[in-house]
Model the fold of this input.
Amino acid sequence: MAKAPLQPPRGTRDFYPDAFRRRAWLFDHFREVSRRFGFEEVDAPVVEHAELYQRKAGEEIVDQLYHFELHDRHLALRSEFTPSLARMVMARQGGLRLPIRWCAIPQCWRYERMTRGRTREHYQWNMDVWGEPDVTAEAELIAAIFSLLDRVGLEPGDVRMRINSRALLDESLREGLLRDRPEAFEPLCVVIDKLDKVGADTVVEQLADPAGAVAISESAAREVVSLLSVRDLEEAAKRAPEGSPAIAELRRLFDLLEAYGVRDRVVFDASVVRGLAYYTGVVFEAFDTAGSLRAVCGGGRYDRLLETLGGKPLPAVGFGFGDAVIGELLEEKKRWPELPRALDALVYAFGETERPAAIGLASRLRDEGQAVELVLGRPKVKRALADADRAGATRIYLLGPDETARGVARVRDLASGEERDEPLAGDAPNPAGIG
Done:
């Protein structure tokens, strides 16, 4: 029989204790920001019906599904959380108080090409607002993202948010290049989202491909790429149809972000369209200013998603914030904190005769709320002391025949080296001040 592989499947990760402490620290910040912004946490199965993800706009994510058939059911590992969220909202539509403010930290799976900060499984922080059509929802979500970036120790200049509107692009193209072919808009967005990855010439080639879903002329394709080069909102307004609602919405959003105190951390960028077909309005992505990583997070408005799944219309906006890229950025900026093991004490019995007393002491300390490791087996006391120090414990309780006979434990403070006797009875002092 062949040896079992020692490494996890390519693109997935093991979380040993030190890595898990980092993950827990980051997730705690995700949850705290969500709580402060009034969001409630939800979750859904990691396995969904594959049909939930199989849309027809040519999105890469559809081809990246981990999917399988079991008992005549076509199932898939969750590739993103928004479709699951939409399913949950649909299941109770009409019975939910609007607007819904939900958050989640789902594990997602995509079989994609790996680069720095891009794995095939990742966790992501989602915040979504359902039932609010106004850009006040977008402003609240963008403010939450910056709140998180501040909490984890990044400087205001480390990350910038790039903002655009699918509706603005829609207005511009449906009145011009796509006047007679509105159905080509969504696959067009999927193609132009690859601009940063494949370059302008390849995007033009794909847009002009006669066998493709867009199939516009080469000159029209270059006009589309030209629209994406705009980096100033007022310049975009000059190119937009007169009285553009999308321009008015973007201006209001930037005004709201001024009120949040983050206006100087966001920029207009017409090339941001997001690669998922269901986006309908404002879209946004956050990037490190050095440009060394892929997007830190991204999201936008998806007002018609429920309709595509057979539900009643309900406006919605949300974002996904992956754990892998922010982890790379924190490493690069040396912002990961020291996260030692959280252990208060070790309890060590010199022999099996003293073990019942050691168990009783450890149990009492644990009942008081302390984190206590009861030394198993019979290692030498020197090894136990070294383990206690390495684990970051503040003290070790030593129980030998003399101590148990006197009803006490010998307590050594590992920082100062001072020792004292402490009664084993329940009225013993609590040196950690816990309980």
The longest strand covers residues 121-130.
